[in-house]
Request: fold
Amino acid sequence: MSLHTELLDYVEREHAGALLTPAQLSQDALTLVLKNGVVLTVRYAAADAYSLRWRTSLHADGVELGIDTAPTHPQLATTPNHLHRADGSVVADPLTRIGRSPQENLARMLEALSRDPQLTDCTL
Reply:
């Protein structure tokens, strides 16, 4: 079973109440539409290599926020994971951690995005 299929099963079992529409599984991603309108695209190449990207109704212009593990910001305390904010800045990742299970990282994302799609109140 692929990691995306495992995450789909997990979301349907544990977080279906947070979703506006059923989760959609494609070849390389899981797409979740939350009740608050956030569209989250989940991509996991491995447990320690992921990209979590989302759009909100606040960003009708196509601005996307995201957390990923590309090793491009070594100065950040959470390297390699980091958060791309709507204003274009890149900061330490306040939610996910390499070493946690993909399910735990996704649960933290769903909870945080349901409360605050901009992640303005998240702390490390």
User: Anything to note?
Assistant: The CA atoms of residues 18 and 111 lie 8 Å apart. The first helix runs from residue 3 to 14.
